[in-house]
Specification:
- The chain is of the alpha+beta class.
- It has four helices and eight strands, in the order αααββββαββββ.
- The longest helix is centred in the N-terminal third of the chain and has 24 residues.
- The chain is globular, with a radius of gyration of 19 Å.
- The N and C termini lie far apart (54 Å).
Length: 185
């Protein structure tokens, strides 16, 4: 009994120590976490948290009035675009979508993120085949396709929707050129 209590105490102290180290760092790698989790689980991220972690990024309003913040991963040379709705007050604004791609949609952003090397979404990586991405969206939920534009290129966007979350892959020349996780359609 004494040994079991000692072991439990040691495990509890180790967990507290690890938790304190994570809190001390104060950094959550939101981009990596969203793709690792395969969506916003258990909840979407607040824009304020993203801003604290990565800074303002290169921000602009797009053609439909959404706020897009661009960041850069110097390790993979991928662009990260984080989208939110500016109609919602800053205190309550959540992130609608996080997209990563080696295709730039503008001049290279100055603000950086964590390294995204080796990042996959539901087992699919940048450069994988269109068929692998399509299979992942079918397994994920209801599938949707549309023609879209990514930077200077026409792409086909293939998405899967489930319980208010989405995973999307942009396809060009039968290869994945962008991946995104989002909340809502």
């Amino acid at each position: 009994m004494y040994m079991t209590t000692c072991r439990l105490l040691i495990v509890a102290l180790a967990l507290l120590s690890a938790s304190a180290q994570v809190e001390a760092k104060g950094k959550v790698d939101y981009v990596s976490k969203a793709f690792h989790d395969g969506g916003y689980k258990p909840h979407v991220y607040f824009e304020a948290d993203i801003l604290r972690r990565y800074g303002k990024g290169d921000e602009r309003l797009d053609d439909v009035g959404l706020l897009r913040r661009r960041y850069w991963d110097p390790n993979t040379e991928w662009e990260i675009v984080i989208t939110s709705n500016p109609d919602i007050g800053p205190k309550y604004r959540t992130i609608d979508e996080i997209r990563i791609s080696p295709v730039l949609t503008g001049k290279q952003a100055l603000s950086t993120t964590e390294s995204l090397k080796g990042l996959t979404l539901k087992g699919v990586a940048i450069g994988d085949s269109a068929s692998k991405a399509e299979a992942a969206t079918r397994r994920y939920g209801d599938q949707y396709r549309e023609k879209d534009r990514l930077g200077r290129f026409d792409v086909e966007r293939v998405c899967g929707y489930l319980d208010g979350n989405s995973i999307c892959f942009d396809i060009r020349e039968k290869k994945v050129v962008a991946m995104a996780v989002g909340a809502g359609p």
